Amino acid sequence: MKTTYFILSFLVAGLLFNACKKDTKTCNDENNPNCPNYINPCDGKKDAKADFGIYEIIDWAAVEADTVWCIRPVVLRVKLKADNYKWLISGVNTVYTDSIVDLTGKMPYPNGGFVTVTLIVTNNVGNCTTVKKLDSLTKVFYAWPCANGYCNYSQWPQNYVPIMGTYIGSYKSNPTQTLSVSVFDTITQGVWQTYTNPCSPNTLNNRRYDIIRGIPYPNHSFDKIKVYDQGAVISYVGASGVILKTLKIIGRLDTTVGHCNGIPGTFPLMNGIAWLDLANSKKMYVNVNYLDTLDKKWRNDFFTGFKIN
Question: Exposed site from 72, 99, 124, 245, fewest CB < 10 Å?
Fold first, then answer.
């Protein structure tokens, strides 16, 4: 009797094993996690994440900023890829769906004011339920206004844009030396009248003059250097950055009228950019390349400073 029970038990266990084995072989449901050919719908899927930058285009440079000037192009650009984009911009009826949006001429810049931008991104996640398929981010930037809607840079009086001013800091080449650097010009009407053209002291035949101090030489000033079309120091201006460029050595490092007579001077060839820190508008960086007037070699230096006025 015991022997018969053992044999029957063995047969039943064998049948159950074969049945389970058979079920495993025939399971081909790719949506069933218990099947060998299961395909996880979340494989390769990533959470949607919205992030973008607001860039003021100043000549060749794109400066990420929260303040832009009405006269300069403005571009929005995503920083993280997604499958789909949707831009909502205050004051703009168009809904953009590209990863880059050029707002040049599409906003009421002459009126200035705050602009709100919301980016909504979605990823195609299929049947995956554990991955975030939608995200959004909102940022606000300020459009620095023109004067009465008139945006001709060289001919209208207006308060200094934020980048203009004097900063205390140091150059990378000599980090222990503290000095002041100024970047501004006479676009403001009152200052323009104060800094009369030294080459034509009785006339105001030019509307603006560059006033650069401490770039690239510490303790030197380029006040009252006449703005030649082929040698202006500040070649492009934005609210959050300026392009510095000269095409030839001009003038002298002084405030006399001697340089008006073509006396060889020490105003160096240079090119560079000054821009404000995105997180701290009182902090400015200057990256400048210049032709040293003594050894005639090109050099590079980097200034970091904080605004005092």
Answer: 124
